[in-house]
Amino acid sequence: MTDLNKLTIAEARDALKKGDVTSVELTEACLGAIEGAGALNAFVHKTPEIAMERARAADARLKGGDDAPAMCGIPVGIKDLFCTKGVESQAASGILGNFKPEYESTVSQNLADAGAVMLGKLNMDEFAMGSSNETSVYGDAVNPWKVDDRQLTPGGSSGGSASAVAADLCLAATGTDTGGSIRQPAAFTGTVGIKPTYGRCSRWGIIAFASSLDQAGPMTKNVRDAAIMLETMCSHDPKDSTSADIPVPHFEAMLTGDIKGKVIGIPKEYRMDGMPAEIEKLWADGTEMLKDAGAKIIDISLPHTKYALPAYYVIAPAEASSNLARYDGVRYGHRAKLAAGEGIVDMYEKTRAEGFGHEVQRRVMVGTYVLSAGFYDAYYNRARKVRALIKRDFDEAFDQGVDAILTPATPSAAFGLGEMAEADPVQMYLNDVFTVTVNLAGLPGISVPAGLDKQGLPLGLQLIGRPWEEGDLLNVAYALEGAAGFVSKPEKWW
Amino acid sequence: MSIDKDTARKVAHLARIRVEDDALPALADEFNRILGFIEQLNEVNVDGIEPMTSVTPQRLKRREDVVTEGDQADKILSNAPDAREGFFAVPKVVE
């Protein structure tokens, strides 16, 4: 077999079980692809020794019988936000320079326990704060999709994960999503990304950004792979107090492609002013595809949609300012050099000024401000009340019998790296306008590639599901994927 | 609500991030743009709405109050910029 790195998880799993291929062969193919893809800057810490060791162990396990888990022997990339024992885990930040955790995140441990092979750590926006992977201490990750001289963003914050999966450097990757950080990069790279219901994946060992919004999820080449990998990532974990103690279904078995009678809601508030015509058309086409597959389409209203982004930009920075208070130069990471006579407050202030990038500093300070005496009620509590209303909008839609909601994933296709440098920070935040509501309401959401724009860049549609109904959601996504028939891949230039 | 240079300085200090004086006006300007965006929330009627604390109604799990992990001072100190004799070392805190 050639180009083993181009396989999907399902294809590789079946070939491994038949004995047509070994995990060592798959892993070597991916390591070779990674070596040749420096220009994408997707893998920022490579772990070939760990990869080969796990691949050999997986091959031994696969030989032992038919009961090896689906992810056994599958080479994957891990976002730098996940703590991985003995391997740099920096959240793409200078403040965690050389940090090597003594422990493994629950999600990456679940993958390792299932026999998955870690190839290395993937680029991202610093502390997952960004929508273009341009705030990383490692430099920009680059989208393998290209239509002219410009280098394009793979999206963010899971930009390295998206780039690596789209470029076939790995079979799949982990991502995390606080406001759209799995779904927006998936849409920008023609890949699939699902953020499960809040509480499905343990947050333990994932470097925290905004704890009430953060969720991990897989980034894969198709919906079936997303189902397979998500199931392995999910678990109840006593080490995360918000981890859900409910059974994890066998998601892949729920992919029948039969969505007859399913009710799909189309929210009118997502038809934004100035929405590009091709996004509108993509959305209409996707609606038609689901209708043709037998779904019932209804118009719904989510009246507080407009306020989701402003609420998010209170809540997420507020939580970040608390979570990131731990980076003080005492226990791990960077510590600033002090001049004679400087004390501990100087140490904190200089360490954090040197260690945090500009966007992180800005969000920590906005968070500090909205939580400060006198403003807590006006900003933070008001935002949490609006959040309750946003969730109520969704609850009411689901009470009407809606099974899933279809929206665009992003307001545009991938843009050029550096193009937003002079823009207002709020302009960059608008990338998450369709995805952020889902985090605020704690719902599962998936981005599915559904077409190309007129330049030839991928565009995604988002499906939003009922809480804990990832299986149903994946099945609707599977039907949409089948109907959309998106098979384009970026042409190799790197 | 408009943030001036002095407020920006105060916020930076509260966040324990050193911002040089000449960078404060630009910072205040950025804050104002972000807060201007956030101000939209004032349009929403939130009378009688409880602030959300959790997306899923759940009672936090409880467990026996027993030691589950411990005796790993070396591991805990292994990433410290300055660790001495089993402690984190910092500049003098008390004069």
Which structural traits does this protein have?
heterodimer; A: 494 residues; alpha/beta; Amidase signature (AS) enzymes; eleven-stranded mixed beta sheet; 15 helices; 37% helix; 13% strand; B: 95 residues; mainly alpha; two-stranded antiparallel sheet; 3 helices; nucleotide-binding (chain B)
Intertermini distance of chain B = 40 Å
In terms of per-residue confidence, which ranges of chain A show pLDDT below 50 for 5 or more consecutive residues?
A: none
Spatial strand arrangement across the major sheet of chain B = 1-2
How much of the sequence lies in strands of chain A comes to: 5-15%
Could you tell me the strand content of chain B as a percent range?
A: under 5%
Output the CATH topology of the domain at 4-260 in chain A: Amidase signature (AS) enzymes
Mean pLDDT of chain A: 96
CATH architecture of the domain at 4-260 in chain A: Alpha-Beta Complex
Helices of chain A, by number, come to 15
- Compute the number of strand runs of chain B: 2
Structural class of chain A: alpha/beta
| Largest protein-protein interface | A-B, 74 and 50 residues
In CATH, the homologous superfamily of the domain at 4-260 in chain A goes by the name: Amidase signature (AS) domain
How much helix is in the residues of chain B?
Answer: 25-40%
Catalytic activity (chain B): L-glutamyl-tRNA(Gln) + L-glutamine + ATP + H2O = L-glutaminyl-tRNA(Gln) + L-glutamate + ADP + phosphate + H(+); L-aspartyl-tRNA(Asn) + L-glutamine + ATP + H2O = L-asparaginyl-tRNA(Asn) + L-glutamate + ADP + phosphate + 2 H(+)
GO molecular function (chain B): ATP binding; glutaminyl-tRNA synthase (glutamine-hydrolyzing) activity; transferase activity
EC number (chain B): 6.3.5.-
Family (chain B): Belongs to the GatC family.
What does the model show?
By secondary structure, chain A is of the alpha/beta class. Chain A has a domain at 4-260: Amidase signature (AS) enzymes (Alpha-Beta Complex), CATH 3.90.1300.10. Helices cover 37% and strands 13% of the residues of chain A. In chain A, strands 1-3-2-4-6-5-10-11-9-7-8 form an eleven-stranded mixed beta sheet, sandwiched between helices. Chain B is mainly α. Chain B has a two-stranded antiparallel ribbon with strand order 1-2. The longest helix of chain B has 15 residues, at 24-38. Chains A and B meet through α9, α10, α11, α12 and α13 of A and α1 and α2 of B.
